Amino acid sequence: MSSFENLRIVDNFYQTSLFFPMPTVVISTLCEDGSTSLGPYSLCAPYYVAGKDYYAMLLCCRNSSNTAQNILRSGKCAINFVDDGPKTFKECVKLSWPGDKPGDKMPKCAFRREKSQIEEQTGEKRPEVLTDAIQVLECTWMRELDGAENDKPGILDGYEPPYHDFNGITSQFGAHFILRVDRILMKKRYSDAIINGVQARDFPPLPVDYGYRDSKNFWFHRHRRMRAELLPMRQASLESV
Ligand SMILES: Cc1cc2nc3c(=O)[nH]c(=O)nc-3n(C[C@H](O)[C@H](O)[C@H](O)COP(=O)(O)O)c2cc1C
After folding, report:
1. Measuring from atom 21 of ligand 1, which residue has the nearest CA?
2. Number of folded domains in the chain?
3. Residue owning the nearest CA to atom 5 of ligand 1
4. Label partner for 236 (CA 20 to 30 A): which of 12, 112, 127, 203?
């Protein structure tokens, strides 16, 4: 006999029917007037990690969000990993009210921003990045994948079919974006750790987010002490990892 309960699989099952640990990122995108808009996201994960001509992340979001609309238009975004401070998370939640336009929320937003490194070096217009982010991925949407190059912004009350399977507009209210990683930016303290080898104390204080529950709260916890588990392997196998 099974030792488990069998839960209903419903919309947003990852946060309604599961305890699913996720990152918290703030995505910056370019508005039509060239200003930067910020939106908090958790459904953002590595997608192409090896064996392709480029590396990519996947973002899953409402297609009417400012983020989705701006990516459809400009193709550019930056994925900012913020720290686990309660004030930072509060600021993220403040940016999450569906329907708030950048003009409503950005003037009240406390996150400091600076010019994209790519823009600084090449002149190509890019969204600003968060100055206090621990790490940032500057990205370009691969709009030609899955035939999504003709997906256009401008529809905020639900897109009509046909829908793509995994890139661009994927349902009436949904979008997925495969985002090429153009650059990884990291604060020196952490990039030094990556280059020199990490100790437990070198891991950055990133939050773990469990999403929105009971139509009321976003739940998260702060970074905790890291533990290392030695791989019980022979030398030859270690070299192959
Ligand atoms: C911590 C956190 C994580 C979120 N993750 C997602 C997500 O992965 N996908 C999504 O569609 N909405 C997510 N939301 C809700 C969006 O932030 C919300 O739709 C917001 O309006 C998006 O802002 P934008 O319209 O400026 O892009 C999240 C909200 C918070 C606070």
Report:
1. 98
2. 1
3. 41
4. 203
